[in-house]
Amino acid sequence: MTIEKGIAKDIENLHDNDAKKWFQKLIQKDQYVGELYSINYESAKIQIHDTERQKVGGIPSLSFLIATRVDPDSTNIDFKTEDAAFILLRVMDAAQLPNSAEAERIRVETAQRVSGETDKHWDGEGIMDTKTRVYLGYAGVECRIIGTFYLEASPEDKNHRGHLFLKFGSDISNYYPNRGLKVYKPNGKALEDIVNYTDPSNLQEHIENYGTAEKVKLGYIRYASTNRKYQQIDDVPIFIYPADLLSQKSALFGMTRTGKSNTTKIIAKSVYELRYPREGEGKPLRIGQVIFDPNGEYANENVQDNNSALKNVWQLIPNATKENEVVTYGIHTHDNDPGRKMMLINFYLDENLQIGKDIIDSSFRRDEAKFIESFKQVIFTVPDPSDRSSTTRYNRRVLAYRSLLAKAGFEIPTNLTITTTNLFKSELFDGRPTARNQNERFNGMLNVQSDLNNAERYRSAVRIFKTASSSLQSLANAFAILFDFMKTQEFKDFERWYIDQSTSGENWADEDFRKILEMIWRPNGAKQIGAVRDNHSASTSSDYAEDIYKDLVNGKLVIIDQSSGEPELNKSSADRIMWHIFKQNQKEFRESRTPPELLVYIEEAHTLLPTGSDLDLSDVWVRTAKEGSKYRIGMVYATQEVSSIQKNILKNTAIWFIAHLNNTDETKELCKYYDFADFEPSIRRAQDKGFLRVKTLSNPFVIPIQVDKFDVTT
Prior knowledge:
23 helices; 6-stranded antiparallel beta barrel
């Protein structure tokens, strides 16, 4: 024998052994259930018998079956042939056999013979003969074709000399209507390999991108709500790859108390544990995670979860410390969380003026009163210090804005310096001759003639403006009076004189200044702003959005407790935090640096994410859904209704966790994605807690799962 023939023989033997090993592993002959008798590209019909059905512990709806012509005991399985494969099926419903009508007639007639005799069954001994019982034991089962498992050499192995590995295709490449296939119900190790199948290229991509292909257990396979034990599938584990979630959109849908929060905790825990991989499963990977927690169930221990709070996940890792791993934020302190960081800023500080203004603006509802919409247009942009005129106008606006904050009840920092020096023209107060006619005179606030009823009020405002150390509260009153004065003829004369003698030709009172004054003057203006007082602290000097981003960059699990905040403020603060995260990662990307890998969790997503079908790129959540993957921002959102989520976000969602939904509006919306249509009746009917249908990036088809209970003690 030549060397070449010897090598070829060795390769053939290697492939034969590999093929036999794979098929013996996946096909269990004692799990035979019947024969495939009808097939097309989408579905198949199987003939089964009660005897085989009973031997395998039953055939639940939505269970997996496999159909093949391969005999796993064969000593010569050529993996290159068309038959060297098996088709993965999902049981959908019963199917009518050609003799179904005749069989039903016999059953009815036999049942009539024992009608009224409670101690006898129509299929019992003496009622039905053995031959008839065997004949009637046959039934048909309708299945959907999920795809094809087959064997293939590695793509890198050009000469096909290496071991074979399992491949999956989400369809069938061919079918023969007159060719029989044996059908088996996989369980145990075979079922575990089937439901946890992942294309090797996906795992290689995880390793190349993140340095890890670690998987974690999510739960067990579960076919139906009637989850009877001892069917040989109770201990078949389901795994997920945490790296699947990175830079992707993931959805958790289900009614209240069906396991969404528990699943979120397990997901967050699995991503957290990537920083401490098991031996041989990749390098440590610290992923920054932030959870918007509207109910406080992740940030605080609670009876519902046996006091197993996600914030204590660091305790699972030996020698880990909370300070380096987990940080909680909130608007209010919590007795059981002494290390909580306050989500507050000092609205009065120069560097926080626009940040605070953004928080105020975002707290307003849409289509507010005209004066509020005008106020929202004011922006605090620091001018060039060498431009004296612009600097004076800016300082005047800042003084008025700070007085508005004081009027709204924002605590004033003790070290804040207030001055009115050089901010007001003396002509405004005292009056001066006009530039156009020296013989004409106009009166200022001190000598107003057109509104004698308010003359004393105007004079009181002048005294406040001329006092260099006036309080912000008194200045707020003075600014409200100034806005009244601006309606008088005296002020209009002053404005004409000011424009005539000015080199810029601009009004003394610019539009932004007027908008702030009107907000002070309006009785409801300060009250509207006061709604965000809980976001202010007179003692803090940093921006919590920036602090949160720094914690995320350091790979911490950040939990934002929003349980004690108003819904409008929770949304506005979440929007601002998300914009900061988005823009910072976007900046890293644009400057040719690799952005940090981050994962954002949105509980009760309908309170934050937009609804509707229009693409609104002005919304940060839509932007993140559309562009987040590019900037390495992943998103996990949970809510009760599929229809409550903006369509563009749904269309960009790759990973799905679906619990019980109670109406057809939601399940029909869900049917638009992947193969969830198969599960629509089950999703609507089964209300079991933790019973989910899961589609991940690595799993090529939907898997029904009973999710494990989250526990930080294990």
